[in-house]
Amino acid sequence: MPTTLDQLNAATQAEFTALLDGTYEHSPWIAEAAWQRRPFASVAALKAAMARVVDEAGTERQLALIRAHPQLAGIDTLLEVVEQAVIVPVRIGRRADGCGVRRG
Questions:
Q1: CB–CB of 31/17 below 8 Å?
Q2: CB-based burial label for 74 (10 Å; 0-12, 13-18, 19+)
Q3: Under DSSP, is residue 47 helix (H, G, I), strand (E, B) or coil?
Q4: Which of 26, 31, 79, 91 could staple 68 via S-S, CB 3.0–4.6 A?
Q5: What are the two backbone dihedrals, phi and then psi, of residue 70, each rounded to the nearest 5 degrees?
Q6: 64 burial class (0-12, 13-18, 19+ CB within 10 angstroms)?
Q7: pLDDT of residue 94
Q8: pTM for this one?
Q9: What are the pLDDT digits (tens) for 84-104?
């Protein structure tokens, strides 16, 4: 029997996470965090809340999420792009800070 939105909205955090197991494979932390954003008026609102959790998770957690899904096509290329876009500017900024150069 399919899970209803009413069941999800009434569930404890553990139940909610179990009911959504596999939504983000190997990443139950997303459902755990989305639970705090209840009640959901629609399935679209639930999906948006889970996407926001990922968006707000920070670079390291996002990279861990990507790495947990090795079946993604071009994972090495994707990781390289993400690391270049996020990690390299941070390293450059740290070097600039250490040289007495101000950013921005």
A1: yes
A2: exposed
A3: helix
A4: 26
A5: -65, -15
A6: middle
A7: 45
A8: 0.66
A9: 665 554 444 444 444 443 434
